[in-house]
Amino acid sequence: MFPKIFKREKPRVYLGAMLVASSEEWKSLDGWDLFKSVNLEDGLRKSLHSAVNLPPIDSREERKESDLGLELVIVNYQGGEFSAFQTTELFIPIFWRPKVELKARLYNLATGKTVHSASSKKKTPWRQFFSRVFSFNGIFRFKPLFDVKDMEVLLCLAAIETLAKLTKRL
After folding, report:
1. Which of 6, 111, 119, 157 has its CA 20 to 30 A from that of 149?
2. Is 1 inside a domain boundary?
3. How many domains does the chain have?
4. Based on C-alpha coordinates, what's the Rg of the chain?
5. Which helix (H) or strand (E) holds 71?
């Protein structure tokens, strides 16, 4: 008798909007503009669509009051770079690590109200960052230090962490 009372049916989750906030501040990965710019936004958009494998909201046939929608938004991202401001007496290193910040929202499809939300921010570890900076490519710059593949790794880590937070709350 008690298992039927406390046993609750898990809601079905469908994929809603997946957005990447535009970042106009980051046009190029190489500090000297020697190479063509890398379009991180398009790469992240493709990666986000391939990282989450849920049926879209349009595909649901039988509507239930417990159905949930999942929205994912990359609210902030940046590539990584290392440069320096140098005068005859002063040397100031300038660097920033690649990062991705992802926010997710589960909402009831019938009412549109948010049920749960979660977020995650991932950055390249310092060790990996400095190993790239002081590599052969980092010194001579044959290509950008960090590219879309590096950002995909951060995005997948952020997506796993965010979705795990949401799954615990269901």
Report:
1. 119
2. no
3. 1
4. 21
5. strand 68-78
